[in-house]
Amino acid sequence: MKKVFYFLLILLLILIAGCTPSQVSGPAPFENSPAPDFELKDLKGNPVRFSDYRGKNIFLNFWSINCPYCLKELDELQSFFNELPENTLLITVNLDKDADKVKAYINEKGYTFPVLSDPKGETIKKYSIRGIPLNIFIDCSGTIKSRIEGALTKSYIIDLIKSYDVIKKPA
């Protein structure tokens, strides 16, 4: 019951954020538009600027520890991370306020993919996030190629990326 309450609370907060005027300048962050830049800290406290990864294909995932679909998808993301296609990065952005709780969960599960922490929800506005999990594929020029709300499987992610003919699967 407590999990349902937290899930509904997060969903309500996301809906409320979606009803407020956007602070995003420039084109909306959807297909064929430039991916908005941001700077967040990883779970070790190191600053990471998204634009530092220009020149690489990026699979960007937004999630919360209170979202059961997100947690299920993390296993798929780890499997994808273990077999990343050439010139491709996986970056996940956690939207929870308690980074220590997230770090403990990531360590407990043995996940090794990068996790950035966004406790203030800065990326929610920049990426017009309406629901999570949210998965965005960005090509090496920094253009959003695909934006999918909902949990994905490893095979779907790989097929999606291959469909843009921007990478080759490692031999």
UniProtKB/TrEMBL annotation:
Please provide, alphabetically and separated by semicolons, the GO molecular function terms listed in this UniProt record: antioxidant activity; oxidoreductase activity
Give the matching CDD domains: TlpA_like_family (cd02966)
Q: Which Pfam families match?
A: AhpC-TSA
Q: Does the keyword Signal feature in the UniProt annotation?
A: yes
Query: Signal sequence: where?
Result: 1-24
Q: Which UniProt keywords are given for this protein, alphabetically ordered?
A: Signal
* Domain called Thioredoxin: residue spans: 29-166
Protein name as annotated: Sporulation thiol-disulfide oxidoreductase A
Mind giving the lineage of the organism this protein is from? Bacteria, Bacillati, Bacillota, Clostridia, Thermosediminibacterales
Q: Which gene encodes it?
A: stoA
